[in-house]
Amino acid sequence: QVQVVESGGGLVQPGGSLRLSCAASGSIFSIAAMGWHRQAPGKQRELVAVVADGGGTHYADSVKGRFTISRDNAKNTVYLQMNNLKPEDTAVYYCYAVQGGTYWGKGTLVTVSS
Asked: Would you state the pLDDT for residue 55?
């Protein structure tokens, strides 16, 4: 089993920044990818960003140029640097790790509001 735990959410004003962290632990031998999805109130969960073990990344169009995903393979940790945050970025952010199956964290709330 793989456990995934997010941290770093909170309240930020529009235009501000936050950095989310996500650590995977447990029976880890080769995590293929780690990433973030988010779910805003009343909306479906959507992909935000993902990084493969080789370093390749993919972003949702809505966050390109504002969010940066990075990964520390030695620590089995992934980060999401979020800049120029907008009210529409308000959501619960879920981290996941892919190793055979997909393992999800419980989520961390990001609220962008003045």
From this structure: 87
